[in-house]
Write a structure and sequence with these properties.
single chain, 112 residues, alpha+beta, Alpha-Beta Plaits, two-stranded antiparallel ribbon, 26% strand
Length: 112
């Protein structure tokens, strides 16, 4: 075993997650203009999940304006991610807080 490999194995890495407020600071984008859309990225969707499943899971958190599951152009199969848009920022924030890692169709949802 080389010296470099043993040094890497003995090193512990610590990652810290930034506060939620800094992760989604709209002032950093669009020249500081806040978008009227209140969309969330849905990651790690099950390929068996459809728009109706997402609507049912997120309905308690506010009025849903749009749900989009990204699909392959060639096969039309779900690509395991999508977007949900709410009518208010508050609804999107509550959904983000309450639904992160919620199991939907056997897979935990992940927001980015």
């Amino acid at each position: 075993m080389s010296v470099g490999v043993s040094k890497i194995r003995n090193t512990s890495l610590h990652f810290t997650k930034p506060p939620l407020e800094t992760m989604f600071d709209a002032s950093k984008y669009n020249d500081g203009k806040v978008s009227e859309k209140h969309s969330l990225f849905l990651g790690d969707l099950s390929i068996y999940c459809d728009e109706k499943d997402i609507a049912a899971a997120f309905a308690p958190y506010g009025n849903i304006v749009d749900i989009r599951i990204q699909r392959s152009k060639e096969t039309s199969r779900a690509l395991s991610y999508g977007f949900i848009e709410f009518d208010t920022e508050e609804s999107a924030a509550v959904a983000l807080r309450e639904m992160n890692y919620f199991l939907l169709k056997g897979r935990p949802l992940r927001f980015v």
